[in-house]
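Re: beginner question about structure tokens

> Can someone show what the tokenized structure looks like for a real chain? I only ever see the sequence side.

Sure, here's an example I had lying around. Input first:
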Amino acid sequence: MRLRQFTAILVLILTGWTSQAQTCCSGGVPLTGNLGLPVGSVGSWQFSLSYDLNVLNTLKDGTTVLDDDTRKRITNSALIEIGYTFSSRFSIDAFFSYVQQVRELSPIGQLGTTNKTNGIGDGVLLFKYRFYKNFQAGIGVKLPLGPSDLRNDIGLRLGADLQPGSGASDLIYWLSGSQPFSSRKSMALSTTVIYRATGQNDSYLGQQIYEFGNEFQAIVGVGDRFLIGSMIFDPSISLKYRSVRPDRTDADNTSMNDVPSTGGKWIFLRPALTYNINTDLSIQSNIELPLYAKLVNTQVTPTFRFNIGLLISLNPRKKVNNEITNR
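And the corresponding structure tokens:
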């Protein structure tokens, strides 16, 4: 790899790590926020490999930040998304994850405790239809691939927010698209809207029902393309709105009731940068910085989130056509 390309990659990574800046009450796997590959050519495969760091060190009650650093959450996730484009209209994405979650409690005057879990997270199958240029609509299902019954060191089952999986299937509705500006074709306005209707885990703690809150996300941003020497960069900035209903459970063995200190509304600023190594390989990085949060009761909320990864595109049909043309 040429020196300038290596330098660009290093700058991209360091920018993400030093620009300190979601899931809400849960520091779980970032499924829906990372879902959806771009429009691909017919017969092409796309592979997205990324690392996601979610740091939740801010304690809030409603909209008020509390002066309390006794609770901390960190989630490290390895994410893999594979996509295939069947035709000019239809494509499919498959999303898989591996997650590590750490929760630290340090009550004043008491011994601190740390709970850590590792495991395969839930996955997603998303079926997409391109209905106009770069606009796609999709419907998918979240598959309960990850365990939801892990225990701590003394044998007690951990809560739902620390489990790698949810133990339930969800329906996902997805819409995404971009529109170039007429005055500058390299600049485009983009939007993504996601709604997740959650299912129920019927064996929570062995005998209860647990249901994570339904989730809505809307992302609106603008991006452009710049050439620096022979290197191509795509910077962008967007706003992300996220709303989550409180979780519900039948802990009283009578009816489903809201779980205290779950659910809320958030607004994030999301700067991003993509370095295009060539037409088939790029490095993508983004940071999420919380601008506003209104939580239900008292919760640990995101302090910042960082994501970096590779996007690889392969088209065997294109290779075969080129070989035939060159004969």
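Each token stands for a local structural state, so reading them left to right follows the chain. Residues 3-18 form the longest helix (16 residues).
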